[in-house]
Specification:
Blueprint: H1 5-14, E1 24-28, H2 34-44, E2 48-50, E3 53-58, E4 61-70, E5 75-77, H3 79-84, H4 90-112, E6 124-128, H5 136-147, E7 152-159, H6 162-168, E8 174-179, H7 199-208
Parallel strand pairs: 1-2, 1-6, 6-7, 7-8
Antiparallel strand pairs: 3-4, 4-5
Helix pairs in contact: 1-2
Length: 209
């Protein structure tokens, strides 16, 4: 059990100090991932930024991901899952993609004043989130960072289901996970304090970086 995202970030940082001498950047998945990412960046004395990856959600259940789309347009869909769920057709998916693209544009303007990511070529990228449930947003982000030419990708999260971590191990150069439970219901159950992170908090963290 983690006290909060700050303490989880400090613990993650202690496992990442070996990368301190490398040319790198820490990217937090907003909004919740920016809080622990800040602690990692501070410990390594690396620049901090955000990478925006948004869930494509199922009808009537905004927490249930059927895919994800990233700020550089990479789309990941779970076709098998989509085929098993009622009320999902091409029109719904197109509408959801459009909605998430609009939210990505809003966040990019808000968190980075509309600018693109810095050049990631020859860089070690540490991608941080506050936890992983289905893994779609993280997977889409990792695949996007590969396309952007990152030299090395390390995923770092406080909590991820054991089976999902196994699936991700071969997709990154290293996957740091502090807890990998076999029984998992939600990320928040592993935190004593897990309030929603608001836009204003993300902006404040990025301004202090």
């Amino acid at each position: 059990m983690f006290k909060n995202r700050v303490e989880a970030g400090k613990e993650l940082a202690s496992h990442l100090l070996k990368y301190k001498s490398e040319n790198g950047i820490v990217l937090g998945l907003p909004r919740g991932g920016v809080v622990p990412a800040c602690k990692v960046a501070k410990a390594l004395n690396w620049p901090l930024d955000v990478f925006i990856s948004r869930k494509i959600t199922a009808p009537l259940n905004p927490e249930y991901a059927i895919g994800a789309i990233t700020e550089n347009g990479l789309l990941e869909l779970n076709d098998e899952l989509i085929s098993e769920l009622p009320d999902i057709d091409a029109e719904y998916i197109a509408h959801e993609i459009k909605h998430q693209k609009e939210e990505i544009a809003r966040r990019k303007e808000l968190f980075r004043n509309g600018r693109d990511l810095p050049d990631l070529k020859k860089k070690t990228v540490i991608l941080v989130d506050d936890g992983v449930a289905t893994g779609f947003t993280l997977l889409a982000a990792i695949n996007s960072l590969r396309k952007l030419g990152a030299k090395k990708i390390i995923a770092a999260v406080p909590i991820v289901p054991k089976e999902i971590k196994k699936a991700f191990n071969e997709k990154v150069d290293q996957f740091i996970a502090l807890k990998t439970p076999e029984v998992f219901f939600a990320v928040g159950e592993f935190y004593e304090e897990f309030p929603q992170v608001e836009d204003e908090e993300v902006i404040k963290i990025l301004q202090k970086k």
